[in-house]
Predict the 3D structure of the following.
Amino acid sequence: MNAIEMIGVSKSYGQVRALQDMCLSVPAGSIFGLMGPNGAGKTTSIKLMLGLMEPTAGSLTVLGSIPSGDGMVLRRRIGFVPEDFSLYPNMTGLEILEFNARLYGCSVDENVRRLQTVFELPLARKIATYSKGMRKLLGLYIALSTEPELLILDEPTEGLDPMVRSHFLGVLADETARRNLTVFFSSHILSEVEKICDTVAFMRFGRTVLQDSVESIKERYRVYTVRFGAGHSPRDVKNIVIQRERALGQDAWDIEALADQEQARTAFADAGGTVLNVQSLPFDEIFLRFVEA
């Protein structure tokens, strides 16, 4: 079952198209990372998922519901931490949690006791005294305190120092495993996505250009050094996705391809090529290959 399903979703703002035929499948119980450069459409996608706006075209379901029609009910089942958010500075952390619990119609007592040992936040202090990292952690604390089925995070660790970021991601991973929670978050910090996500999607110009598990992407995307026989070249290669190629001279090429190794070797052999070497690429370099203009 998929917690989020987007099929051919487009969203336009006047003449500007933010999303174009966006397709996305987020498995229930997974940690899913949406990656892309600034302006790729990540935040627009999240707003659609929350029912804060309607798609111009396409189909979108979240937890089996249509956000634009069931937004009020659906948002009670979702925890959300935006990239930038404001908290009442004269309220304490505990008062914020209690205020949020009243909005959701639930009690914070049990969750506060358990989560406090995880987050180690000074809930008796006023928000005005909190650092940026503490406010981010409180945002996650608030989102988790209502026992959501789905947690949506928009650039959750942007601007945090490495220690706070590590703590944030550790809490996220532990809570996901404990609750069988589905987590969807957007980010352009590649190292954290690689570390924590089961599945990722790369976005470029408002559409998904690749979706797969992190391990599968790293395993399938490789650089092949191939020597072609007379009259043959990379143009003859069929049935695999070639992202880029670079001539080395003497009929040899470096070819970056997305394919199983056996499939790639067969495709090169069928095109008159012999594989001389196979090299893996770091995850961040793979991402750049798909989103570079």
Remarks:
- The chain has two domains: 2-205, 216-291.
- The chain has a mean pLDDT of 89.
- The two ends are 34 Å apart (CA to CA).
